[in-house]
Amino acid sequence: MKTYWLCIALLILSIKYSLGEIKNGYANGINSARVSLKTLYALLNDHTMTGGQKKAINAKVKEVVKYITAYELTQNLLNQFRIIAPQLYNEIDSIKDKKGRITDVYIKFIPEEQALVQAWGITGIDQVSGDPDAYQSEYGERTVSVKVWIVSKSLVVLAHELGHIKYVVPNMAQYVEYHVRNYRPGTTESNHVGHNPSDASGESALTFERKFRESYASYLKNGRDQTDSPRVLADKIRREVMSRAQTVDRLASL
Ligand SMILES: [Zn+2]
């Protein structure tokens, strides 16, 4: 009986991983961040630590809390997006390139001060060498990386970026040629790049943005509450992460 269930579980897992997916860009480091936080709090309870050592540990705690907060905020916002606009979410969650290969989309919501480019949302465009139809990013081959600032309209910005992706992933080779012809080398999708009047990716971004706004309006009409501003949400999550870690630490030291 157990084997039977194991097979079912494996089957479900393999189905899950055989599809392209929207993924939290912080997921890879989250387990080690959680372990680090526990270890750091335990160290803070060590009374042999000097003031200088504790100061260094507190600085590290701040960094790790920031990472966990960013992960949880991204989870929360992706979830909100899926509830508000399930159709748009699913279109990107199952996106494939021109050759029908799955392409994963990694998303990170980032604080403004971490942004390398002055744009609310940014999606890198990079081809796999020798495979012009395949997308790649810092997450590997057949992946897309999206970064969205934590601002009041983060979900609209995400919809916009996903609209670019909706067009570019299945038209990669052709779009890169268009991009090279029309924009300065080395530029990526930003507030302006990607929006020539003849740019189909820009048009798709605006369509996604409009559809998201419409979905959000009908979400509110159905009596749902206005969602928290991502900045307010980030503060709330940060406080929760801190108090959770402190509680776990207190229980462990009892
Ligand atoms: Zn754009």
Task: Compose a concise summary of this entry.
Helices cover 58% and strands 12% of the residues. By secondary structure, the protein is an alpha/beta fold. β5 and β6 form a beta hairpin.
Alpha-carbon distance between the two ends: 41 Å
What's the quaternary structure here? single chain
Bound molecules: zinc ion
**How many strand units?**
7
Whole-number average pLDDT? 87
What's the order of the H and E elements?
Answer: HEHHHEEEEEEHHHH
Q: Supply Rg.
A: 21 Å
Strand order of the largest sheet: 1-2-7-3
Percent of residues in beta strands? Answer: 5-15%
**Helical region count?**
8
What is the molecular shape? Answer: globular
Would you spell out the secondary-structure blueprint of this structure?
Elements: H1 2-18, E1 22-24, H2 27-44, H3 51-84, H4 86-93, E2 104-110, E3 121-123, E4 127-128, E5 131-137, E6 140-141, E7 143-149, H5 154-168, H6 172-182, H7 200-221, H8 230-252
Parallel strand pairs: 1-2, 2-7
Antiparallel strand pairs: 3-7, 4-5, 5-6
The protein binds zinc ion.
3D structure, described in words:
This protein has helices at residues 2-18, 27-44, 51-84, 86-93, 154-168, 172-182, 200-221, 230-252, and strands at residues 22-24, 104-110, 121-123, 127-128, 131-137, 140-141, 143-149. The protein has 254 residues and is of the alpha/beta class. The strands form two sheets. It has a four-stranded mixed sheet with strand order 1-2-7-3. A hairpin with a 2-residue loop joins β5 and β6 (140-141). α2 runs antiparallel to α3. 31% of the residues are buried. The structure holds zinc ion. Residues 160, 164, 189, 194-195, 202, 205 line the site of zinc ion. Zinc ion binds next to α5 and α7.
